[in-house]
Amino acid sequence: MHIWVDADACPRVIKDILFRAAERTNTRMTLVANQLISTPPSPLINAIRVPAGFDVADNYIVQKLTAGDLVITADIPLAAEVVEIKGIALNPRGELYTRENIRQLLSMRDFMDTLRSSGVETGGPKSFNEQDRRTFANQLDRLLAKAD
């Protein structure tokens, strides 16, 4: 398994959890972003800077991904592509994207986009909190244990 991180919007605390997990489990990890991302010195962890642009980082991840790889992303369309390729997609709050839930999540995302574009104030996602961090760490541990 290789861990791919859609790193532009990934919270720092989640990156830190991922750095420790990659080292602990001897798992290769690549962070992909359109800005410089600092990583700890490790032969297992690297960062790729892609040009700025719509879905450039997402497209890079999809091109490099193989079945069974893990992708950390809050981007639902990217998660849908990962699931289609038979990868594993996990968001930074610990929600696993699956064949069973991805269509519904895409529909809800599209519906909310339609509301926002018509001027309806939908608010944003709730603030990232300690429970989200724990849920992510626990789900990540389960996924990495399965990969062994």
Features of the shown structure:
single chain, about 150 residues, alpha/beta, Rossmann fold, 6-stranded mixed sheet, 5 helices, 6 strands
Short structural summary:
It comes from Neptunomonas qingdaonensis. The protein is α/β, with parallel strands linked by helices and 148 residues long. The chain has helices at residues 12-25, 56-64, 76-84, 102-117, 130-147; strands spanning 2-6, 28-33, 45-49, 70-72, 88-90, 96-97.
SSE diagram, text form:
Blueprint: E1 2-6, H1 12-25, E2 28-33, E3 45-49, H2 56-64, E4 70-72, H3 76-84, E5 88-90, E6 96-97, H4 102-117, H5 130-147
Parallel strand pairs: 1-2, 1-4, 2-3, 4-5
Antiparallel strand pairs: 5-6
Helix pairs in contact: 1-5, 3-4
Give the CATH class: Alpha Beta
Quote the distance from N terminus to C terminus.
9 Å
Instruction: Tell me the structural class.
Output: alpha/beta
How does the major sheet shape up?
Answer: 6 strands, mixed
Helix content: 40-55%
Q: Which band does the percent of strand residues land in?
A: 15-25%
Helix-strand pattern, N to C? EHEEHEHEEHH
**Which strands sit side by side, in order, in the main sheet?**
3-2-1-4-5-6
CATH architecture: 3-Layer(aba) Sandwich
Rg estimate, integer Å:
15 Å
- Provide the CATH topology: Rossmann fold
| Average pLDDT, all residues | 90
Tell me the overall shape.
globular
Instruction: Please indicate the count of domains.
Output: 1
Number of helices: 5
* Unreliable stretches: none
Annotation, overall tally of beta strands: 6
Protein name: UPF0178 protein SAMN05216175_103144
Pfam families: DUF188
Family: Belongs to the UPF0178 family.
InterPro entries: UPF0178 (IPR003791)
